[in-house]
Structures are given as C-alpha cells and as structure tokens.
Amino acid sequence: MGSLNGDMFIDILEERRKTSDIRWATKTWDVSPCKFSLKRTPQEIKDSVLNSEKIDAVIKEISKENNWSEEETKLKAKEILDEMSHNFQFKVIRFFGYVLSKFMKSVYGKILVNKKGVEKIGSVSSQYPVLFLPTHRSYSDFLLVSYVCFYFNLPVPVIAAGLDFLGLKYLNFLLRGAGAFFIRRSFVGDKLYKEIFTEYVQTHIEGCEYPMEFFIEGTRSRTAKSLVPKLGMLQSIIELFFASKVPDIIVVPISISYDRTLEETLYAYELLGVPKPKESTRGLIKARKVMSDFFGNVYVRFGEQISLKDYFRNYDRSVHNLHPRNFHLCTKEEQVLCRDLANHVIRMHQCNLLLSPFPLVCLVISQPEVTKTKGLHFNSLVDSIYWLEELVRRTGATIYSDQNDVSESLTEQLKLHSNIIQISDDGYVSLKQDYIQYPVSVPNVPCLQSTTVKYAIPALFAYHYGNQVLQLLVHVSMVCLAMGFDEENLFFTDDIFFRYKTLRILLQREFVFERLTSEQDFMHALQSLKEENIICVEGNKIYLVNSCLEKSEFLSSILLPFLESYCVVCHYLIQKDYSLGDCKKVSLECQLEIENTILSGILSDYRCLSLDIVNNCITFLVNEGALTKVSNNGQYCLLPNKSKLSNVVLDLELFLPTLAKLNNPSLKFSMPTAKL
C-alpha cells in the first residue's frame, strides 16, 4: 500500500501471489443490496421489459405500421431481448475471479486501486442506483471493474458490451453469466430495437438489482486519448432522473491506465488502415501468447462520485409533470445537459489518471527533430521529464513510479518497452526503426508503401503512449501555439485567447472540451505556464521568458501532427470539383495524400498518417458544413464546399503560416522545433 497525492493505493495482486486463488474465488461474499432493489432474477427483468406498458404500445404501433400481427412483433421483440440480455450468476463471477487472477499475475506486476474511492462506493451503493463509467483503452478493461468489486466485496455490475463479443463462441455464455449484455453499435431506423434497449437499461436502473457499467466513449481508444463521448446509453438513463422516476443516480468515473497496452501492436496497424480482427474464440486462443510477455502495472482510480441530484440542482424537472409517466423524451435542453455531463466525466477521467513516466518519454522522443537524429541523450531526457511532470501534476493527474529517482524510473520503463525503444552505447534514446514484430495474421496495409509502414509503426507506438499526457497538456500547448514566436515575444491576452478559442474549435474532435470552460481553461493554462516560468503576465500583456523559449517551442510542437494532417486533408479536398466516395474511401485517399506529402519531404512526421486523425478531420469538416453528405444512387457520398474549406484553411494558417502553398513540393515546413 502506498500514498499518492493523499490517496492510498492498494496492490490487489499482492495478496493473490501469497494465497490460494481457488480459496479466494470461493470466499464468503455478502453485500447488502440497494434499498430500492426489486431483487428480480435476470429472467424476471426480461419479462418485466417485454410486458411493460411502453413496449406493449410500441409493439402495437409497429405491428400496425408494418402490417404484422402483434404476436409476430412480440416474437421479434423476444428475440431481440434474448440476444441482448445478460444472465448474471455469481458462480460465473467466482469462475472469472479465479481465471483473471491467474492471467493478471502472469502479465502484470501490480494492479493499484485507490482505497478511498472504493470505500465511498460501498457507502453509496446501498442507497441509490450506481453507474460505473470507466475509460476504455484495452480489452482488459472489460471485466477489470468487476474483478475489483469482487475483491473489495462491492456489488458487481452488469456490463454493456458490443454485439461483436457474441462472436466468442462457447465463451459468450460465460460473459452473459458475468453480467454482460450485448447491444448493437448502431440501431438507427430500428424503432423496436431502440425501444427495447431503452426499456431494458431503464428497468435495470429502476430495479436497482445491480450497478451498471458502460464505456461512455463507446469503443476502445486506439490512440489512448479520450474519445468524444457517445450519449445514447447515458441519455436513456438520465431520462429517468429528469422524469423523477428515481430520486438520484450516482455516477462514478473510473480512470484505468496501463504501463503497456496488450493490443499496442494491433492498434498501430489499425491506425494505418488494417481492419480490426473480428472477435472470435480462435483469435482469443491465439492471443494467449501474450501471457509469456510482461506488461508492467495497471492503475485503477475511482473518481469523485457525481450525484445527478446535485449536478442538475439548478434544472427544473417539473416540465415533465404533465407528461405521461411511461412516455418520456429528453428535451433539447436536457440533451445539452447530458452532453455536458458526459464531457465532465471525460474531464474527470483525465484528471484522475495515474501514469508511468513512459508517455512523457514518447511525447519527447517522437518529435521529428529528435527522430531525424540519433535520438535524445538520456540525461537530456531526464531533464525534460522533470519539468513536464510538474505541468502534468497541475492538471490533477499523477505520474507514478516504483522508484524514488527519475533516472531509475526511466531506466525501468525503457526496459519494459524495449520492443519499441533503443538506447545506444553512448546513451541516446530513440524509437526503434527496425520493428519487425508484425502480427502474422495481419495483411499488408492498403495503399501505403512498405517503407512508409516501416517508419510509421514505431511512430504510432509513440503516438499511442504519448497521447495519454498530450490530452493533459493540450491547453498549455494551445496557448503556446497561439503565441507563436515573434521576435519581441510580447502578446496581448485578448489576442491569445481568440487564437486559443480558434484552436479549440479546430481540435474539437481530437480532444474533449467542456462547453462552458474555455475562459477557465485558458486562465489555468496561463497560470501553469507562469508557475513554470515559461511566461510572465503583466496586466493584459504576456511575455515569453527568453531562457525558457525551448520549452514553449516544445509545447507548441506537440499539437502539430493534428494541424498538419488537417491542413493536408483540406488542401487535398479543396481541389476536388466532384462528389467523393463515402467517408471510408475519402479517409484512405486523404491518408495516401499525407503519405505523398511525407515522401516529397514536405512533412516528416509519420504520426500524421494516423487514420484516427484523418477520420476526426473529416467528421469535423462534415459538422462545419465544409463537406456535405449527398445521396448518389442510394449511396452516401461527400461533396466538398470550397468556400467553407477555404475558411478552415485560413484558420489553420494562423498556426501553420507556411502551408498556404502546400502544393509546392519545394516548400518545407518551418515549424517550431523541440530542442530538449
């Protein structure tokens, strides 16, 4: 047990290494149910959904619309419920307790969990419905919260899972038994499925038999930074609170991070365009070889609980008093409040992160000015980590180390990641450029040249790990980028704030920003830079400190891969005079254009090839009206709007002024360089 920032952390694997796993998995487990619990079985919950007044009305409506008999429609509803529902059995939880103990002791050193956060769950779970909202970076997240709850004798949650997991033949029934219920990724246009899903979720919250766990980001983040939240599940749940069907709901943000991610190799390939392997039992069996590798520590921090009653205390719910009790939809204002809550949860995820120093290492050595040389000397790397750690701590996140000395901690982390990091005989640290551990079953990356893939893979490894701290430093980075590098190093606060807000708009798909906090975030970033002695603030004037210019340049440079990619994509699309293909086709075309820009020497950062960046850019352009979805023979295509694309380019050129003539191959980027 150890204390970090006043929070006590317990290594829950320590006991497992000393005592019998069988005896532990079969321990006495007696937890008081929620006082509102209806104590129904999984089958009784299904029957309650199918026989509810709401679903009965929906069945009648759909039957009439489609000229089906009500018996036919009810049979379809039952089939949907059978596919979706869990079959929670505590004997299966015990089985997974045993199996996961064996697995985790094999691949991880420690699983550190904050004691204070866990204790608070115990006190509130008997009072109100509880939502566990963890981050999602790995398949390991899926049953980890259940494992922690079982360890600490807390109520074990039911878990929303993607329908893909039904592909795990012979294992999906065990997942159902562990509380997993399976939902489609999208059910737009299928009213029956949508209403059954909503009723099934809401019935669980009203019945209070189990806490509920779901990933608010919707899917695993291949980039390790927070994804823009998906609102469907959360909105279905908070409808109950707005309609006063439950007195309160407790939301528990949970931040989970890993020294090494199990899927690190697959993620790098997925970001280059290789399709995600389908979930299958055979694939899971093949993946067992990871048990022969070591992946360091896992960090689980239960964040401060959010009471919806307190969070929405200024909202008047009486607007629903005259609505039929069993038929309720969120108002537009409530939908905005739902997004605000989701973004706030993501912000808490980030503030509660516990990270090793390795993401800072990746952020530093992945800069083009470092990758184009023999690397960065170990001593210089240590110096960089020292001051970056201080900036990270000001965000609320914590850099964890088993060692007291930064040098020792870095040495340990570099050994853990020796598959992608190398240290030369004279002490220079760099990314390996001869990474050959390609997954055997992965086909060649479409479109991209083999030499491009060779250099892109290590860059995307670093991109994955570096993003964990980049999302924490994004505000100070945007401020530094907004200041530029004028010779006088003097700026006016209002001008910098305007540019900062422009960057927030441009990067709204890359990072999660809370709706009403732009000024607060800006001022906090200024204060952090001031305390780090990077800037001086006098009234409405900001001065860059000459002795810290390199720090400011580095912080500016860490956002450039996103802006550079966006700029290449916009310049490519603005040349098109016709409707393009669908989003996937356009993404691959834009990725190929970025590769051409790299091969021509204009760009040098292989992280720009990330399809995640390209897809986010296209989504941003669609949302801004710079790309329009049009129907072409029944297929949706994208049509460029040159005027709006030009406006986006003008905004980008505020921060990348040399890109106005991107189509000139002789033009090189004159970007800030990190000389750490």
Radius of gyration from CA coordinates: 26 Å
What separation lies between the terminal Cα atoms? 35 Å
Contiguous low-pLDDT stretches (5 residues minimum) are 438-442, 660-676
What's the architecture of one domain in CATH terms?
Answer: 3-Layer(aba) Sandwich
CATH topology of one domain: Glycerol-3-phosphate (1)-acyltransferase
Based on helices, strands and strand pairing, what is the structural class?
alpha/beta
Summarize model confidence as the mean pLDDT.
Answer: 89
Query: The biggest beta sheet, please?
Result: 10 strands, mixed
Give your account of this protein's structure:
This protein is α/β, with parallel strands linked by helices and 676 residues long. Among the domains are: 2-21 and 40-320 and 327-354, 3-Layer(aba) Sandwich (Glycerol-3-phosphate (1)-acyltransferase), CATH 3.40.1130; 560-661, Arc Repressor Mutant, subunit A (Orthogonal Bundle), CATH 1.10.10. It has 27 helices and 20 strands. Strands 1, 2, 3, 4, 5, 6, 7, 8, 9 and 10 form a 10-stranded mixed sheet that branches. Strands 12-15-14 form a 3-stranded antiparallel sheet. A 3-stranded antiparallel sheet has the order 16-18-17. α10 (191-207) packs across α11 (232-242). It starts with a strand and ends in a 24-residue tail after the last helix.
Can I get a quick summary?
With 676 residues, the chain is α/β, with parallel strands linked by helices. The strands form 5 sheets. Strands 1, 2, 3, 4, 5, 6, 7, 8, 9 and 10 form a 10-stranded mixed sheet that branches. Strands 12-15-14 form a 3-stranded antiparallel sheet. A 3-stranded antiparallel sheet has the order 16-18-17.
